[in-house]
Each structure stands twice: as structure tokens, then as C-alpha cells.
Amino acid sequence: MDKKQTAATVLIVPGLREHVAEHWQTLLEARLAKVRSVPPLETDKLSCAARVEAIQRELEQIDGPVILVAHSAGVLMVVHWAACYDRPIKGALLVAPPDLEASWPENYPTPDSLRANGWDPLPKGRLPFRSILAGSSNDYLASLDAVTRMAQDWGSALVNLGAVGHLNPASGYGEWPLAEDFIDDLDH
């Protein structure tokens, strides 16, 4: 299989999950020629600062234009990174961000634990690069209204993906070809 060529290097920023082979980001990474992924943290897994530094370390390894592709808490990591660093970014696809004000299922960190680890307050200023924020009408981690407010705060183009849950394997989504369409849009 030929890998898809992009002008920019795609940096995949996963959320708090461990490596999941059937996740759309993992599958996307296998299909792209110019791609890197922020590796999972071994320690301080809930530390926002450690996550931001992991993004920066990966970006320091990339020459040329970059497109960020973030999912879930990875979206929040990108927004915190953008508030700390000023490297030019060609664009960002930000998918299914969690709402720090929402009540989440038991198997997720609590909003209080994330606040204690530096995730809140979430930067609200316009991102210094073009971004597409994709949300779901039935995501259990964030309402579409909350995602709409984030898009307004960050100056992102909002895309309502419909009823796709959290756009992860647990919601029935592994393969997600639409991601490549959004990347193509950001790459041109």
C-alpha cells in the first residue's frame, strides 16, 4: 500500500489513552508518509505540563510545516501548548475535546484531578494557526454546545460530525477516512 503524501508533516497528539491499535489516529498514522506521533508518557501521566513538553519535544524533531491532529484530551494539550510556544503551525484538526465542566463516566479522570494537574483554566484566546474543531452531537465527554463555545474561543471552524459518540473504538469508530479530507484541507 502506498502511503499518502502530504506537504506538511502530521503530528498526531493522542488523548490520555494508552496505545490503541484500532483507534482512528493509529490507523491514520499507518496511512501517512510524513507523520509522527507524541508517545505516551511513562510518568506524570496526568500532568498537563508534561504533556505540553512532550508535544514540544516532537515538534523539535520536525523540519518544515506541521499539521497537528489531536483527539480528546490531546486537543486540550494542543491549546495549552499554543499558549506556551510560538512555532508556526500550518493547521490543526482538533477532534472530540472533553469539557472540563462536564461529568464524565467512572473510568475517566475527574475534572477535579485534571484541574489539580494544570489542565484548568483552559486557554480561551484565538489559536495562532488555522484550526478545525470537530465535535459530536452525542459525545459523553462534551456536549456539542460546549464544543461550539470552544470553537468560538479558539477561532476554530466548527464541524458537527453528528452522532459519533467520542469518535473512538468504544463508540464504534476505528477507521475514520474523513480525517484525511480535513488534513488535505489544512495542507493547502
From TrEMBL:
Q: Check the record and name the Pfam families matching this protein.
A: Ser_hydrolase
Q: Which SUPFAM superfamilies match?
A: alpha/beta-Hydrolases
Q: Which InterPro entries match?
A: AB_hydrolase_fold, RBBP9/YdeN
The entry lists its GO molecular-function terms as: hydrolase activity
Recorded superkingdom: Bacteria
What name does the UniProt record give this protein? Alpha/beta hydrolase
Q: Which organism is it from?
A: Pseudomonas borbori
Supply the source organism's classification. Bacteria, Pseudomonadati, Pseudomonadota, Gammaproteobacteria, Pseudomonadales
